[in-house]
Amino acid sequence: MNYSVALVPGDGIGPDVVAQAVEVLDAAGDKYGHVFNYVELEAGGKAIDHTGEPLPADTLEAAKACDALLLGAVGGPKWETLPGHLRPERALLGLRSGLGVFANLRPAALLPQLRAACPLKDEVLIAGSPDGKPGFDLLIVRELTGGLYFGKRGRIEAADREEAAAFDTETYSRAEIKRVLRAGYAAAAVRRKKLCLVDKANVLESSRFWREVAAEVAAAYPEIETSYMYVDNCAMQLIRAPGQFDVIVTSNLFGDILSDEASVLTGSIGMLPSASLGSPEDPLAKNGRPMGMYEPIHGSAPDIAGQDLANPLATILSAALMLRYSFALEKEALAIEAAVGAVLDEGYRTRDIAGRGAPGACEKIVGTRAMGQAVLKALENIK
Ligand code: NAD
Predict the structure, then answer these.
(1) 4 contact partners, CB below 8 Å, separation of at least 6
(2) Catalytic residue among 46, 256, 294, 325, which?
(3) Of the residues 100, 140, 223, 317, which has the maximum number of CB atoms within 10 A of its CB?
């Protein structure tokens, strides 16, 4: 089958890592009989240089017409002094809200090959772990297009300088809460069937509303165990017993913070993919599959851009998520994930994940391109 993929390589290491993901996608296409047609688009710093704005209208319109979007990263020191509404990162908010991708799925698992990269002790990793072995495998589902980041905000001027103030507001509608919870339940249904709603219901009215709506939605998923946890406790539990979690569903702000915390437990930010999904009922959905935007969780890493140093695995794994969620190509997604596992087993390491294995492990330190090539080779051998 043919699929159209909007590609936004972006800035810094974005083009380096996206190039590798495209090669892997094409190899998976050749192996399993699919064709990916790419539409390369500009957003972020590059778009500012060429058009004066971080997200040109043409880019958003072209992305909407594609089946899914794969993004590298945007931003860098060159654009850091621009006013907020003209910064490259604005493109991310514009793409997320323009494509209606409200559920941000961030898997975080401890790969045995990178055990030493996790700062936690074995006894912490065993506590709550489903198989009693040191490790964790969790998925944070973060609400992405509402809450504090999109709520009413402003400044209140006052004659007395000390009385001047600023505010941001957290507003969530029943519909917004329901749809992200449903995305969480759908994910939990094919995992370990546990969903934890994380909030601050002891203080915030919006969190109490999330709980009311969650109780309604949970009734439709009796096979899934639903639990509730305050965000401050969750921040602690993630470093005391991360193995207890399967799917965590939470608001935009809490999800932003908790997913960065979880990423540290896995070793390198260069390993973590993400998928942001819309609703299957949305007008942008194609063939009953939600619109999806896929990107590594890292930024544009200007310190290593263009030097063949970036780890491309987070972007390659993001491409695998695209095959799974946007194209329902589960076998193909699993093949890419298995190929990544195989190159790590063989000892291939980019610099960010080097020296993190068992003492004395035989490692081959490689650059971005060689890591991509190793994944391609491993993919050939996947049955
Ligand atoms: P960053 O994620 O770009 O880099 C943090 C550190 O991690 C750096 O030392 C970098 O070298 C390293 N790193 C990141 N990705 C790596 C990879 N794939 N392989 C190896 N090492 C990697 O975060 P930052 O330095 O805070 O931000 C740099 C720029 O990126 C800023 O302009 C920021 O606004 C932007 N940013 C963009 C996104 C996005 O596009 N989604 C996300 C976060 C930050």
Answers:
(1) 36, 37, 38, 39, 65, 66, 67
(2) 256
(3) 140
Known active-site residue 149: yes
pLDDT value at residue 240:
95
Q: How far is the CA of 21 from the centre of ligand 1 (A)?
A: 18
Q: Which of 26, 260, 282, 308 is catalytic?
A: 260
The whole-number pLDDT of residue 2 equals 94
Task: Identify whether 256 is a catalytic site residue.
Answer: yes
Q: Compute, in angstroms, the gap from residue 348 CA to the centroid of ligand 1.
A: 22
Name the token pair of 345.
Answer: 């087993």
Q: What's the number of CA atoms in the CB half-sphere (13 Å) around residue 84?
A: 1
Average pLDDT over residues 238-263: 95
Task: Provide the 10 A C-beta neighbour count for residue 221.
Answer: 18
CB within 8 Å of 166: residues ≥ 6 apart:
153, 154, 155, 156
**Whose CA is closest to 185, among 217, 210, 229?**
217
CATH numeric code, 119-266: 3.40.718.10
Mean pLDDT of the chain: 94
pLDDT digits (tens, 9 = 90+) for 264-316: 898 888 999 999 999 888 888 888 888 999 999 999 999 999 999 999 999 99
Q: Determine the pLDDT at residue 133.
A: 87
The CA-to-CA distance between both ends of the chain, in Å, stands at: 20
Residues 316/20, Cβ–Cβ less than 8 Å: yes
